[in-house]
Fold this protein.
Amino acid sequence: MAETIEFIKDRATKTISAAKQVATFWTWQELTIDEIQTALTAITGNSSATPPVVGQEEIASQAEQAMLAARGAWDAQLDELHRRTVQGVSMAKNRNRNNPANLAVLAGLTARGTSRAETLAEALAWESAWANIDPAWSPLPANTLAAFGVLRKLCAEDLQQGYTDEQADYRQAAEKLADMAAALEQTVEAWYADATAVFPVGTPQGDMIRSTVPTTYTPPTAKPATNPTPAPAAIRASVSP
């Protein structure tokens, strides 16, 4: 959609205002003013109505916040999982530097992943190798094989599924908002086309409509891009699982 939702809402608001001003001379056959207002309110909401109307914008915003919260919770635990993987792999290789058999098991392990998928894959590989070489050993008292396995499964199952579910809910809400805005846009465009056909240029009503209702969307001037260096957690958060 070339126009922003803000432009569409503004145009709809001004269309409703213009329609009210010419209502004694002409009414649109397709939809009443109240019906156009209802379509706009379904997007924006109306807290003063009885009962209050929760707009699709608010529904989509709440869904986005829930998705971001789920992603934040997942990434926080992934950061801890990554930290424990780095710790375990490094200390295990050092501890087994004189044990060729164990060192061969550990040789291919890495802990340099920056994406969610890489972090989970490296953690699984380390957990498997850990169980193979010495399941009773732990790099630190809190970083045991059992605790590591619980954390890895939490990241790979519950938290990942939670984020996926919230992401799906947000996409559905955002798509519905876009569809509602597109439908409203088509409605006000159709009203304007008929209204300007009924009231030519030079008539009081025609000039009022043309000066009141915006028809052209002008995108905001782009600001120069900045490229701050993101923190490791931000890098992982920007990569899809």
Notes: Confidence is low (pLDDT under 50) at residues 229-241. The chain is about 70% helix and 0% strand. The two ends are 28 Å apart (CA to CA). Helices lie at 5-21, 33-44, 56-95, 100-106, 116-133, 145-198, 204-212, 232-237.
